[in-house]
């Protein structure tokens, strides 16, 4: 993150603190996510000219909720890959019924 503005540094620190806290308090995140990778992914996701200024004024609760949603998505994204063939069959049947 060389040659970054103060705004970018502040945003990175804010995102980093939120991600660190959410992962520290969630065993599933600890098990499935790489903290540094997630910090960098979320920072890059939010580091767009039309989004970065919005992050600065966003309430903590809103930003935490958005980041948590991203972490949830990433933590469950590979879950189906972990299923045994029997579990996958059960899952497929449950989805077909909906």
Note the main attributes of this structure.
mainly alpha; 74% helix; elongated; 6 helices; 0% strand; 98 residues
Give an overview of the whole structure.
By secondary structure, the protein is mostly helical. It has 6 helices and no strands. The chain has helices at 6-24, 27-32, 35-46, 52-57, 60-76, 85-97. Helix 1 (6-24) crosses helix 3 and helix 1 crosses helix 5 (60-76). The protein is elongated.
Q: From N to C, what is the helix and strand string?
A: HHHHHH
Mean pLDDT: 87
Shape: elongated
Helicity level: over 70%
Structural class: mainly alpha
Number of strands: 0
Describe how the helices and strands are arranged.
Blueprint: H1 6-24, H2 27-32, H3 35-46, H4 52-57, H5 60-76, H6 85-97
Helix pairs in contact: 1-3, 1-5
Question: Outline of this structure?
Answer:
With 98 residues, the chain is mainly alpha-helical. Helix content is 74%, strand content 0%. The chain has helices at 6-24, 27-32, 35-46, 52-57, 60-76, 85-97.
């Amino acid at each position: 993150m060389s040659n970054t503005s103060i705004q970018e540094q502040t945003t990175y620190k804010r995102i980093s603190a939120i991600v660190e806290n959410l992962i520290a308090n969630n065993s599933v995140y600890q098990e499935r996510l790489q903290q540094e990778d997630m910090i960098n992914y979320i920072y890059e996701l939010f580091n767009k000219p039309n989004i970065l200024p919005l992050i600065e004024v966003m309430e903590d609760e809103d930003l935490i909720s958005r980041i948590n949603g991203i972490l949830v998505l990433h933590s469950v994204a590979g879950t189906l890959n972990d299923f045994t063939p029997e579990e996958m069959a059960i899952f497929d049947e449950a989805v077909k019924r909906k």
